[in-house]
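Comment on both lines for my students:
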Amino acid sequence: MKDIDKKLIETINRYAASGIEQQVDYEKFYLYSLITHSTAIEGSTVTEVENQLLFDEGIVAKGRSLVEQMMNVDLKNAYLFGFEWVKTSKPYTVDFLCELSAKVMRRMDSEYSTLGGNFDSSKGELRRCNVSAGIGGRSYMAFQKVPQATADFCQWLNDALASVDKNNAAACYRLSFEAHFRLVTIHSWVDGNGRTTRLLMNIIQRQLGLIPSIVIVTKDAKGEYIQALIDSREQEDSTIIQDVMLAQHITNLESRVLQYQQSINDTVNDESDTVNDTAMRFIALIKAHPEYTYDEYAKTLDIGRAIVARHIKKLNGTIIKRIGSDKDGHWEIITNITNGQ
């Protein structure tokens, strides 16, 4: 086992032991992070907080284009569809992959008329034209080969899933990364390949009981990810992209554990005498009006919606918890905090 594989196992164990996944709505917020980072790679500037407001409250972010916001909404729906599909235990097929791509591209204007024929990416139809991308315009395989290559990919994936050691987390992650690499290299669709193949990667991870991996979009991490894809294709060595994605996943998990531990420490400090005035007023308002919407909290406290979202994200699971649905539910105080007590 490679050193990076061993480090992954150690990090996963620390992550599990931290208790971070027991936070109320943690899975939902982690999903929002997956979506935000995946669309950011494609140029979306919508932040996690803005996506939370968009998904939970239907609040459109000012200064963001409707196209990029709908890109995030479509990807969220595609993730929910994919995670439900996993429960069916069905084999992977070309039809399923095309349905997945259609949900990713649902609201994109993607009708094409080419020498190879007419097709619509918003319906998940395989490309009927040749495409190139990246520096130097590297060409992907000829479109005539795409249907068979995609079918062969599904056969490989089903066989790989049947034979992988599900007790070996590193091997399972490498399988998911390999699937992402193989399908994005085929480039089955004219657009949306990155989002669709990263979604497939996360679906496979969910299927194998893994923590879904996020491709981080800091400048250095994004560049490293894209260069690793290029190097793996050119050198015909997929372990390059696998190692990079493993390292990024380790970094992400370690960062989340550290942030969670810091939030616990902050909460302990807050319980004594260091809760800032806005946070204290916010907690008091939640206690008095647990049914309020984000807008009502913001208006009452004379603060922005984004600030409300940040407070809720910080307090959720440690100080407050959500009872019922996002639309019709309410908040409940689970830890009593008062200044000086």
Strands lie at 111-114, 117-120, 132-133, 138-139, 320-323, 330-333.
